[in-house]
TrEMBL record:
Keywords: Acyltransferase, Transferase. Acetyl-CoA binds at residues 111-113, 119-124. This is GNAT family N-acetyltransferase. Belongs to the acetyltransferase Eis family. NCBIfam families: PRK01346.1-4. Residues 342-449 form the Enhanced intracellular survival protein domain. The active site is at 152 (proton donor), 461 (proton acceptor). Homohexamer; trimer of dimers. It comes from the Bacteria. Residues 231-339 form the Eis-like acetyltransferase domain. InterPro entries: Acetyltransf_17, Acetyltransferase_Eis, Acyl_CoA_acyltransferase, Eis_dom, NAcTrfase_Eis, SCP2_sterol-bd_dom_sf. The lineage of its organism: Bacteria, Bacillati, Actinomycetota, Actinomycetes, Micrococcales.
Length: 461
């Protein structure tokens, strides 16, 4: 079958051996789409059947999709030979925002194991394969959204950015912003061909706002597959709501300053409407644009509220609302970061303050990361030099930075959690996840690893 040739890597990939009877293979074309969808619908229950799902624009990263085949089913099994038992994919993101810069990363997606093959170590084998494959491509970070929060910490991923959900009452009072009234708002029916490039450009640009600072973690739709999936508005996913709408706000010269994509739904209690504006994504390049977008969304007829998921925790709306409490803010985890190549990852970002310290890092899955590393930053918001300073192991007396006393001791998941600047090393120390030689060094490190704007994204994949 096309796409089913065995991978030319040893079965022991990344230090993890596949169980007997399984092999890992590349899934490199649409000939295996039905197999992928079959595993996906077992891993993530959905009301739609395969016939409907085949019609959706696929975000699958063909060329970086991998499957585990059950080569020979057990005696008496009704499953065919070479059935897909598990799978994962990885998106190529070449411009993933980290504090003060952008870097290449591997974003893990479509991870699933068929329930007939659970509890056999297949996920662990796929993660080990992913680590080896991504490191071989020179990618220093692996990033993902976790369907279940308890899974990925054991593989060294740290929760690096939460996300915010709001239910904002219609007519909620906003603080005034100069220039908001001068912006023109235009409501449109979403048309990917007419509006897709504009929305894509605005979404990409907001990663650099505020200018000179930017928002770490703001992943954009870099691959053609992701862009098509984000542009699509298939009727089977409307779930009783209208087709996707678009709101664009522009300045007097006609230059777009922000957009929102949304759907409305209305229930009626007798003659009384109870409508909801479900905001899919909202992007503003200026304070005035944010104010104008929300002013218009909160004043639509027949609606009582606007809901929005996956906002960064410091999104402008949190500082525009007079009564934040009425918007019922709710938090959950969103972005998880796994450092694959420690010196490359730490050197690719910027730091909010000068620092010179030694980290003693534990990494049970990638031994190359383990040990002591000296991190030196000479100026605020500058880059770091990262060098190994001695063998890892038990702390002992000696010269700091030469294999002796380390300033901070932590596991790789804690370093990943702090990598985007939103999770404080000092807060991790309060939870026992960072051990500090000196409280003053911990304070300096927490400041250096921080960032003025919270990390976050506004979509999942």
């Amino acid at each position: 079958m096309a796409g089913s040739r065995p991978l030319s890597l040893p079965r022991d990939t990344g230090g993890m051996t596949l169980p007997d009877g399984y092999r890992i293979i590349p899934l490199d074309d649409r000939a295996r789409l039905d197999d992928v969808l079959e595993v996906d619908t077992w891993a993530f229950p959905i009301e739609h059947g395969l016939d409907e799902l085949r019609q959706l624009p696929s975000p699958l990263p063909w060329g970086r999709m991998w499957g585990i085949e059950a080569v020979e089913p057990p005696a008496g099994s009704l499953a065919p030979a070479n059935a897909l038992a598990g799978m994962y994919g990885a998106y190529d993101l070449r411009a993933f925002p980290v504090p003060g810069d952008e870097t290449a990363c591997s974003w893990v997606t479509w991870v699933g194991v068929h329930p007939s093959h659970r509890r056999r170590g297949l996920l662990r084998s796929m993660i080990a394969h992913h680590f080896a494959e991504a490191r071989g491509r020179g990618e220093s970070l692996s990033v993902l959204n976790a369907a279940e929060a308890g899974i990925y910490g054991r593989f060294g991923y740290g929760h690096a950015a939460p996300t915010l959900s709001l239910t904002v009452p219609r007519g909620a009072e906003l603080r005034p912003v100069a220039g908001s009234d001068a912006l023109r708002g235009e409501f449109l029916t979403w048309d990917p061909e007419a509006h897709g490039d504009l929305v894509g450009a605005l979404h990409r640009s907001v990663a650099q706002v505020p200018v000179g600072i930017g928002r770490p973690g703001w992943a954009t739709w870099e691959t053609p597959e992701l862009r098509r999936a984000q542009d699509a508005d298939p009727a089977i996913l409307h779930r009783g709501k209208e087709a996707l709408r678009l709101l664009v706000v522009s300045d007097a010269s006609g230059q777009a300053q922000g957009y929102a994509r949304f759907r409305r739904s209305v229930n009626w209690d007798g003659a009384v409407p109870d409508g909801t504006v479900e905001v899919r994504d909202i992007v503003a390049l200026t304070p005035a644009a944010a104010h104008r977008l929300w002013s218009l969304l909160l004043d639509l007829d027949l609606t009582n509220r606007a809901t929005v998921d996956m906002l960064p925790v410091d999104d402008p709306i949190m500082h525009l609302l007079i009564d934040v409490r009425a918007a019922e803010p709710r938090l959950r985890d969103l972005v998880w970061v796994r450092i694959l190549d420690l010196p490359a990852a730490l050197a690719a970002r910027r730091y909010a303050a000068p620092i010179d310290l030694v980290l003693d890092v534990h990494d049970a899955l990638i031994p190359e990361n383990a040990g002591r590393w000296r991190v030196t930053v000479t100026e605020a918001f500058g880059p770091a030099s990262v060098e190994r300073v001695g063998a890892g192991g038990v702390l002992g007396a000696g010269v700091r930075g030469a294999g002796g006393v380390a300033d901070l001791v932590l596991d790789i998941d804690a370093l990943g959690a702090a990598h985007l600047g939103s999770t404080s090393l000092a807060a991790l120390a309060l939870a026992g996840r960072v051990e500090a030689r000196d409280p003053r060094v911990l304070a300096a490190a927490a400041v250096a690893w921080s960032w003025p704007i919270a990390a976050g994204a506004d979509w999942e994949f």
